[in-house]
Amino acid sequence: MALPSGQQSFDCVEVRFKNSRKEFFRNSEKLPLSMGDVVATEAASGHDVGIVTLTGELVKVQMKKKKTDWEDPSLPKIYRKASQRDVDVWTAVRNKEEEVKKKSRELAIALGLQMKISDIEYQGDGSKATFYYTADERVDFRQLIKDMARAFNVRIEMRQIGFRQEASRLGGVGSCGRELCCSTWLTDFRSVNTSSARYQQLSLNPQKLAGQCGKLKCCLNYELDAYLDALQEFPKTDVKLQTRKGKAICQKIDIFKGFLWYAYEENSANWHKLMLDQVQEIIGKNQDNVKVESLEEYASEIAEEDTKREFENVVGQDSLTRFDQPKKKRKNKTRKKRNHKRATKKRG
Q1: According to the model, what pLDDT value does residue 97 have?
Q2: Which of 64, 96, 143, 322 has the largest count of CB atoms under 10 Å?
Q3: Which pLDDT value is given to residue 171?
Q4: What's the rounded Cα separation, in Å, for the pair 205 and 320?
């Protein structure tokens, strides 16, 4: 589509490489590019091959979001649309990445290095291979680079990544049943701490709160702001209610339903359910040095809604447990077949 008033289209494009790695390139040759085109791009040495994911003014928005200067003269360029030979070489080196990864892991284990090589990415022309690894401590891999260069006959680049970046590159399915956020749409990794789970009244179970990267799930931050806004109306959990029967401590909070559960210090097993306005009333009286009689006077007996639902039989009249019932013997049918065979033999 031609731009109005003879305006020139934006000369930068976004190109995607392996595992959603994206970079920006300048289309200095004014090639007619569109999303999905395979292009040969400039690299430190040789060329790389990638797929165009964005063109036009949307690229300017992405570059502004990622704080990339589109007027930078050192921005790498796009050489050409990939030829058939470029695609063949690119496909060939991509197919041998798994075998190279397995061999490189064996070399690292033989040297006793405390590192995990998680992924390998070959450059489009096959002249260079980038090895992504994770490690808890500093690793001296100089001998490993020599062994891998001798075994694979290619230039080696070692790049350390974090555990979240590793999960982003490898991908997977989370406990929610959907693809990992970090490998689909999440672009920045914000720090997640246990206070995010505490504010949302979640149990501090590492098996449930940790993602595939071994760190706390990024989704713990998604609804945190809504919980913090709602908690502003609630009293602090360390505030004790003063009653004639004793002091009461907060045990549990239901933020969005507005319920709080309190229990006496002497009888912590017996919880009393109160509403937010009732708790605020008791705290207001305590500030005036007035003790209420007991929590039982304020305890709200809220009838629980009947959660049972009647489901219609969408399958039809068949029972879902029909296969669990033992099959009945078909004596009558077998007898009829035998009598029919005997009758036909006599006629013959």
Answers
A1: 93
A2: 96
A3: 84
A4: 36
Torsion region of 249: left, alpha or beta (phi above 0 gives left; psi -120 to 50 gives alpha): beta
Q: Which residues contact 180 (CB under 8 A, 6 or more apart)?
A: 167, 168, 171, 172, 173, 174, 211, 212
Distance CA 163, CA 178 (A): 20
* Distance separating alpha carbons of residues 51 and 81, to the nearest angstrom: 10
Q: Read off the pLDDT of residues 1-11 as tens digits, 9 standing for 90 and up.
A: 566 666 777 88
What Cα–Cα distance (Å) separates residue 123 from each residue in 85, 150, 186, 289? Answer: 14, 18, 25, 75
**CA nearest to 272, candidates 303, 244, 294:** 294
Q: Which two tokens stand for residue 158?
A: 């070692």
pLDDT at residue 329, rounded to an integer: 57
Q: Domain residue spans in the chain?
A: 7-82, 91-161, 169-228, 233-301
pLDDT score recorded for residue 76: 93
Q: How far apart (Å, rounded) are the C-alpha atoms in residues 134 and 168? A: 13
CATH of segment(s) 91-161: 3.30.300
> How far is C-alpha 241 from the chain's CA centre?
42
DSSP 33-82: --TT-EEEEE-SSSEEEEEEEE-THHHHHHHHHTT--TT-TT--BEEEE-
Task: Enumerate residues 6+ apart whose C-beta is below 8 A from 128.
Answer: 43, 44, 45, 46, 122, 154, 155, 156, 157
Q: Residues 71-120: pLDDT tens digits? A: 888 899 999 999 999 999 999 999 999 999 999 999 999 999 999 999 99
pTM equals 0.65
